Amino acid sequence: METVKKEYTLTIYTENHVGLINKIAIMFSRRKISLESFNTSPSEVPNIYRFTIVVIEAESVVKNLVKQIEKIIDVFRVYCNTNDEIVWQQMALYKVPTKVIMHEVRVERLLREFGASAVVIREDYTIFEVTGQKEEINAFLVELEKYGLIEFVRSSRIAIINKSEGIHKSVLEMEKLNPALKSINNEFLDKKDQVFQM
Question: How big is the chain by its Cα radius of gyration, in Å?
Fold first, then answer.
């Protein structure tokens, strides 16, 4: 049985329905799979959302999981990719004492080296933002800990698949083959007070 675990990014395109996150989460908890990162956002297609989920697991387990997720009625498509098949980034915020920034030349060099930009500057602290991959973000964290780091937070992963067209083209083709029925106006909708009286 395969036991070698790798990092995989699942990109799940879905409708935005109440309870969908719970349905997807149950798929992972039943298999005792921990989530390394979880992000949801609108996609390029109106009314279709994308989940970006990172797991570290054996390939066979992940492939089976993908098949099960695709059976959920609100899910359009699931992509499973290794890190070399995607372009991905994370964002991190670092809070450090402002007095250190003002007096330590080394910190100024570090900020330039890691491409950090200040998003808040106050008398007592300054917050810097860095965008990059986990290794870069963690390396900057290690450096700032030497200078009295106050607080740190890192976002979930966002990713775009190298070879994929997403589902935009697929959705347009689906609509051509099976266009949705036009909405029907209910003639009684504006007369509910008269119609629904006891």
Answer: 23
Lookup: tokens for 76: 């359009």
Query: Measured between alpha carbons, how far is 18 from 31 in angstroms, rounded to an integer?
Result: 23
Label the pairing between strands 158-161 and 86-97. antiparallel
Residuewise pLDDT in 10s, the chain (198 residues) = 557 899 999 999 998 888 888 989 999 999 999 999 999 999 888 888 999 999 999 999 999 999 999 998 889 889 999 999 999 999 999 999 999 888 877 888 888 999 999 999 999 999 999 999 999 999 999 999 999 999 999 999 999 999 867 677 776 676 666 554 344 444 544 555 554 444
DSSP code string of 98-140: HHHHHH-HHHHHHHHHTT-EEEEE-SSEEEEEEEE-HHHHHHH
Please, are residues 25 and 65 in contact by the beta-carbon 8 Å criterion? no
Quote the crossing angle between the two packed helices 20-30 and 59-70, to the nearest 10°: 150
Angle between helices 105-113 and 134-145 (to 10 degrees): 180
Residue 193 CA to residue 196 CA, distance in Å, equals 6
β 125-132/75-82 pair status = unpaired
- pTM for the whole structure: 0.78
